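Hey forum,

I'm writing up a methods section and want to include a predicted complex as supplementary material. The small molecule is calcium ion. I've pasted the protein sequence and the SMILES. Can someone with a working setup run it? I'll credit the forum in the acknowledgements.
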Amino acid sequence: MKITYTIIIALIGVAFTAAAEDTSALTLVETGGVIGTDDNLARTQGVVIAWDDASETYPIHTITHLNDGKDGDNYSWLGASRPPSSIAPSQFAGVAFKSPVTVGGIAWGRDNQDKLNDRCLGTYTVQYTTAATPGKDTPDTEWKTVGAITYDEATKTPHLRHRYRLSEPVTATAIRLLVPSETCIDEIEIYPNH
Ligand SMILES: [Ca+2]
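Reply by user p_vandermeer:
Happy to help. Structure tokens for the complex are below, copy them as they are.
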């Protein structure tokens, strides 16, 4: 009987280990830092796509700021103030490509100039699609989730740029972030590796 208990406890330990590994789809590898250039696919090959609801009210926060290579509030995109559940397809900010690319890393921030720390708390879900011509109207059903990151009151410097590594690279025609209400993003970067 003692041996049986030992085996059961060992199996429970394996199960907990496996579950912990399964949640690491996105691994934080850098906080702050600088926007990538040569290997940043969002800059070299990408075209930004985003829910464009706030730019009419706040023209300075146009979606083209998402990959202009500049950080800070003056070079950021501002999302809608309505609840994400009221928007279909989902409110998002992302980058599309003319042909499929391999994506192994992603970075984004709210104000990497470290001046404003509002408009950044909530859950960001990283998704990709293989749709031929991805855009604002690509149905949610054609997007697959890679993982999600949540910033809350306990998160240290949630407004700075954070770069994450995907546990498994994906082949995609577009990458997007489902974003919280009123979120602000100063830059999205996409990398083949990292
Ligand atoms: Ca920018």
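Some notes you might quote in the supplement: The domain at 25-191 is CATH 2.60.120.260 (Jelly Rolls). Residues 65, 68, 70-71, 75-76, 186-187 surround calcium ion (CB under 6 Å).
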